[in-house]
Amino acid sequence: MQKMDGMNYAPISQGEVNVVCKEGEFNFGVIGLDHGHIYAMCNGLTEAGATLLVVYDKDKDKIKEFLTRFPQAVVAESEEDILNDSRIQLIASAIKPCERLRLGISVMEKGKDYFVDKPGILTLQELHQAENYCQKTGKKYAIYFGERIHVEGAVFAQQMIESGKIGRVLQVTILAPHRLNKGSRPDWFFEKDENGGIITDIGSHQIEQFLCYSGADSAKVTHSTIANYANKDKPNFYDFGEGNLLADNGATCYFRVDWFTPDGLGAWGDGRVFIIGTEGTIEVRKYIDVANSPNGDNVYLVNKDGEYKYEVTGKVGFIFFGEFILDCINRTEKAITQKHTFEAMRVAIEAQEKAEMIPTTI
């Protein structure tokens, strides 16, 4: 599993996997291979027992590459062939961001649930449309927030919070640098109208984590900024963003996202999470322990009982995927609620839209 390129980072379970269904019991198809996260999404679903039946993308080279990883998939002739396939219960997609809502509406109208890469929604108008179609159809519009659900250290931190290890969460600080790999990025990656901007895109990961860890139902943006410091040839691109949030339960958050991971780092980003509670603190070093270990999933806990370090790769698992499959089958919301999903995107979009543009010509 490579860790140098975040766009193609696709975690594979290192420990025991909880398979929740038999082959053919829960079938899914794939439409849209524009972002490499589709490989991670398919890994998670198939590991938990889902059956991948079909795939479609208009780019034949992308299809050829996908089949080297998932040879069981049959290539469909069109989106419509998959949408009309009565065997399929879920559509997974990493189509380019500006097409995700359009596809999601079509999926839900055909009576299927939808699992889409972040950002699943780009504007507040799109959010209202998604909410309306979810209510109208009763189908799920799930978003792949991989920086929590596909990181064992992040999952373990959530479990410690839920077990009361640090008391009530007061503040969460999230640092999320990413490697740009500029030459390998598609044109849409650099256009805000097509990807939503840096906070709507990778900032949505961080906001979703804050809502989860703090146990908040909602949050408001108290301040946010964006900048294009080093990519003047891409005038509609932002390489830096940050924000401050206040949750409805009084918890606060600071997050920073950027595209400045140094070439010398042995992972696509040194993602860190710092959580302060009334009775302790947690730090998560997600992907690497800089200059100490190439391994990620390092979790540090300090509370009344002492200081602890946990190395949890292969010990926690990616429980989201099995729970999500069962949610689709049983029409429950154990893995993630629709309200939580949409709130994470609402706050991200608001933070992007309200952001102060930092002058970078000074």
The average pLDDT value, as a whole number, equals 97
Number of helices in the DSSP assignment: 11
Q: How many domains would you count in the coordinates?
A: 2
CATH homolog superfamily of the largest domain: Dihydrodipicolinate Reductase, domain 2
Task: Assess the beta-strand content as a share of residues.
Answer: 15-25%
- CATH fold annotation of the largest domain: Dihydrodipicolinate Reductase, domain 2
Rg over CA atoms, rounded to whole Å, is: 20 Å
Helix content: 25-40%
Oligomerization state of this entry? single chain
In the CATH hierarchy, the architecture of the largest domain is 2-Layer Sandwich
Residue windows where pLDDT falls under 50 for at least 5 positions: none
Main sheet properties: 9 strands, mixed
N-to-C order of helices and strands: EHEHEHEHEHEHHEHHEEEEEEEHHE
Number of strands: 15
Task: Tell me what you see in this structure.
This protein is globular. The protein folds into 2 domains: 6-145 and 319-336, NAD(P)-binding Rossmann-like Domain (Rossmann fold); 148-317 and 349-357, 2-Layer Sandwich (Dihydrodipicolinate Reductase, domain 2). It contains 11 helices and 15 strands. Helix 5 links the parallel strand 5 (113-117) and strand 6 (141-144). Helix 4 runs parallel beside helix 5 and helix 9 crosses helix 11 (338-354). Helix content is 32%, strand content 23%. The strands form 2 sheets. It has a 9-stranded mixed β-sheet with strand order 14-13-12-11-7-10-9-8-15, with helices on one face. Strands 3-2-1-4-5-6 form a 6-stranded parallel β-sheet, sandwiched between helices. With 362 residues, the protein is of the alpha/beta class.
